[in-house]
Design a protein that fits this description.
Elements lengths: L1 E2 L45 E3 L7 H5 L5 E5 L6 E6 L3 E2 L5 E2 L2 E5 L3 E2 L14
Antiparallel strand pairs: 1-8, 2-7, 3-4, 4-7, 5-6
Protein name: protein-tyrosine-phosphatase
Family: Belongs to the protein-tyrosine phosphatase family. Non-receptor class dual specificity subfamily.
Keywords: Hydrolase, Protein phosphatase
């Protein structure tokens, strides 16, 4: 996954924290009271967020000693990529992830190119 603006790798597939879409957790989601003319909306259980483990580039997490939540910015261009909360965040699918370091899919570009993190040594 790369920052869309800076095309800098911010996470690999191995860094993604998998979760199962929530069902019962949706009852905790705040909903506006329906009016007489409003129709009932059906829930969409698709994830629009990517949850990752805390990564080295997340300087906001390291700088804020005692800070429980904050925004995550690209190191190269300072674009906002996501949000973190040590107490947890509810995914758009309804599942709770704790602690949560989420990246918004709309602010990322999925890269199919394999970039080695450690260069092989020969000889």
């Amino acid at each position: 996954y790369c920052c869309k603006k800076h095309i800098r790798v911010v996470a690999a597939h191995d860094n993604v924290v998998e979760h199962t879409p929530g069902e019962k957790e949706r009852v905790f989601k705040w909903q506006k009271r329906k009016t007489r003319n409003s129709s009932i909306k059906t829930g969409n259980n698709e994830c629009s967020l990517i949850f990752v483990e805390p990564l080295q580039w997340m300087t906001t997490v390291e700088e804020g000693v005692g800070v429980l939540e904050g925004k995550l910015y690209c190191v190269g261009c300072n674009a906002r990529l996501g949000y973190f909360n040590w107490s947890g965040i509810q995914c758009s699918c309804g599942s709770w992830i704790t602690p949560a370091f989420q990246l918004q899919q709309g602010r990322l570009q999925i890269s199919k190119v394999l970039i080695p993190l450690i260069w092989p040594q020969f000889g």
